[in-house]
Amino acid sequence: MTETQAQTHDEPHEGGLGTRLNWLRAAVLGANDGIVSTAGLVVGVAGATGDRSTLLTAGLAGLLAGSMSMAAGEYVSVSTQRDSEKAALATERRELEETPEAELAELAGMLEEKGLSGEVAREAAVQLTERDALRAHAEVELGIDPDELTNPWHAAGASFLAFTVGALLPLLAIVLPPVPLRLPVTVVAVLVALAVTGWWSARLGAAAAGRAVLRNMAGGAVAMAVTYGAGALLGAAGV
Fold it and tell me: Which pLDDT score is estimated for 134?
């Protein structure tokens, strides 16, 4: 292989790539949630009143409530996942201590299922076990990297930050422009942001971007239309 071919075939193969892509995808979706939920809230309030302080208060309340809810939910979810991973590793460690031969045969069988011949699978299982038996079983049998267990604090912080960044856009768009421009500026800014997050989420999932962008924008547009209509009705009723 020439040097040029080696450079063009330079692909990332590090073990944490899938984990990082999952985090990035979660961040994009968190930002998307922040955009849609906060846009729906402030546009709904704008349908009832044009008072800047009321809009700012409602938007900030929605931002904080949403970001804290996202962070708390992610922390609980990932903590449960981490507990399950640690329990699975503990079980595997105990089995390796109590029945090493059976575990070796199990590892060889799983490697054989992946396409290796019986002899090669057995030799590979022996070498992997000699190097690090727990890691071998964790990665092949459980799909877990013992050195990269999910971190609930990282997940909570990432969700909080992603939601906050997404929510700031509609909040600033509704309070900064002059009164006549607030609604159109907010709608345009939100739809553009949703187009970007839809495109990026599709790119991360190796899916067609067109449909993802249209779905994202349509969902945001419907949310703003519904909340604005509700706010306008309540404002007209003097509620």
Answer: 85
Query: What is the C-alpha separation between 155 and 24, in angstroms, rounded?
Result: 11
CB 98 within 8 A of CB 112: no
Dihedral angle of Cα 77, 79, 84, 88, to the nearest 10 degrees: 140
| Spatial distance between the Cα atoms of 141 and 9, rounded to a whole number of angstroms | 30
CA-CA distance, 175 to 172, in Å (whole number)?
5
Rounded Cα gap, residues 48 and 45, in angstroms? 5
Q: How many CB atoms lie within 10 A of CB 178?
A: 7
65: tokens are: 């409530």
> In this predicted structure, what is the pLDDT of residue 19?
58
pTM of the predicted model as reported, rounded to 2 decimal places: 0.75
Nearest-CA neighbor of 92 among 126, 141, 145, 130?
141
- What does the DSSP 8-state code read for residue 177? S
SS3 42: helix
pLDDT, residue 54, reads 92
Q: What spatial distance separates the first Cα and last Cα of the chain, rounded to whole Å?
A: 74
For residues 96 and 133, is the Cβ–Cβ distance under 8 A?
yes
28 within 8 A of 201, measured Cβ to Cβ: yes
User: What pLDDT shows up at residue 50?
Assistant: 85
